[in-house]
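Methods: holo model generation. Sequences were used as deposited, without trimming of termini or removal of tags, and paired with ligand SMILES retrieved from the corresponding compound records. Each pair was processed once, and we did not select among multiple samples. The sequence and flavin-adenine dinucleotide SMILES for this entry were:
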Amino acid sequence: MTNTSIQLPCAAQSVGAVNSLVTTLFQTILTAQCALSAKSDWPPDYGDEALNDGIGKYDFIVIGAGSAGSVVASRLCENAKWKVLVLEAGDDPPQESEIPGLHIYLERTRYSWDYYSEPQPHICQALKRRLCYTPRGKLIGGTGAINGMIYVKGHRQDFDDWLAAGNTQWGWADVKQFYERAVSPVGNATHPMGYVVLDANKDVGSMLLNGAIFNATAELGVPSRSAFEDGIEVGTAFLPVTNSNGRRTSTGKTYLAKVSRRPNLHVIKNAHVHKIHFDSSGKRATRVTFSLRESYELSAEVRKEVVLSAGTIDSPKLLMLSGVGPRKHLEKLDIPVVHDLPVGSNLRDHVSLMVHFKLENTSFDALEQTRHIDLLYQFLTRNNSRLVNGSSSITSFVNTKRDSDLPDMQYHYALNQQGDVESLGVYFARRDQKYTASLIRQLRKSHLISFLLLSTKPRSVGKIRLRSSDYLDHPRIFSNYLSDPEDMATILRGIRFIERLEGTKAMRELNATLFRIPLEECDEYEYRSEAYWRCYVKYFGEGGYHLTGTVKMGPSSDRGACVDPRLRLYGVENLRVADASIMPDVPHANTNAPTIMIGERGADFIKQDWKEDDQGSNESK
Ligand SMILES: Cc1cc2nc3c(=O)[nH]c(=O)nc-3n(C[C@H](O)[C@H](O)[C@H](O)COP(=O)(O)OP(=O)(O)OC[C@H]3O[C@@H](n4cnc5c(N)ncnc54)[C@H](O)[C@@H]3O)c2cc1C
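and the model returned the structure below.
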């Protein structure tokens, strides 16, 4: 570019050299931006070949390339003799998925299934349309490509309870090896165990705040731990995240894309499966039909098994559309019943709540106007990992009753620097503006500490039902949050714990105090009274985004079970479900790591069950 080609409104123009340098800088930045989500990072799309040449038969068809489906497909195609097809409704992840913290911008885009619960009387009233928003990822990597990246394994007791309920081989001693198998350092070049890449989250947030939280929670009897090694337990610790060098590491990237050059693996993107077909006896799944790019109707036949990994909302939806579900419900929608099973029932989720402290403390810097620009530049050109982060660097698990070793509350913490309105963007985007204005005003005046409370073991149970027999219609999600009074009692104890935190020496030294969000709907109650907090929860409480249980696993004696402990759908020989929907109950912590474990566990069952066919290895490819 010559000097004459740029006419900037400068007092004096460049004679050429500076223009060249700036042009090089621009090009470098743009190239780095594209490299954030390069085509080569993702599996090739077999869609064009499928359209031009038709689709042959596959040994395994995996529906959904999310947290679990990507694991299952990756493990199955280790056997070079098995042809594996993955059908994923979404596309390659965009750049915002790759940068931790920007995932919130994927909500209400084509990369998210924007589900809403049916109206909830006890919760979500400050949200837009007064409805609980329930996003799910619609892209390679699934919800693991839009989540907060926190990687925790659940509590040992969660799995021992599954085992006690008759789910053989699902106790902590059984599943531990599958957690280990999933994580990167365990593998080696010839036996690629371990695809999940984890990073410590220590370099984000404020070490000053983290230190204060460790001290404050310890003052209240919550032990400080270096990590949650053997499953989570009561304590405060740093969190590992599914992140490497500042980039997200979903299973869509680490498990699936990594092996996607294997000739026996085909991945078709923008492939929305709308029916699983069975033979006349209903005992065998024979093929699946899907719409490709919203324009073509295609069908793929299966030789061995269909593995359904479409997640807690879409797996039951697809089963019901295919005739597997509660008889009465299907008959009402004129869907021929293949199997009468309690599909869609047993919906479980955590409940979340945001509470804020204002922090009038000069040890924390206010946000400099140029900080985000500086960090973005460093991130793009130096692969610097400190850009933004999707989650807090530490978490606490607390038993607010102090009556057992099991936590009933989990806390995440985030520092919102004075002036950094963006840092609360996720909550502002979901809330009605009326409920965000005071927080924005406060954030211009002081820092805030945001506490995200999660109740770890709610008792309330919801369900998912079809809205119609049209696969494009969103299902009806009856979350029933806080319908069990004990769940509200737990949240109230969780808030009292925050009040006690406020009184600790560590918090007083920070000069951090509860910030009262003006809330005219709750003004009739005395501030901080139980009635006031109940009202606060009604407005600012939300779902926990950890939906589980709608295709429940259990022994044949369990009338609520849909799949057996080897994940086979009852009544069908060759249809398994492997995703968060099979969990009999929601674990005491975030659900991504357990879902990845379920992918590993499920793939292992399949490999065992087809052992005689298990020859020919792709493992080193
Ligand atoms: C905003 C948010 C933040 C979260 N943060 C965390 C966190 O920090 N840590 C944590 O542990 N958990 C977190 N979770 C939860 C966690 O990510 C999920 O529990 C987990 O990803 C679920 O995995 P899955 O395999 O069951 O489903 P998914 O990962 O959702 O995979 C399902 C896949 O199937 C595809 N699909 C659906 N229907 C069809 C169809 N009909 N045809 C073809 N494909 C289909 C979807 O597009 C998707 O790719 C978060 C969730 C949300 C929403």
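The longest strand covers residues 296-308.
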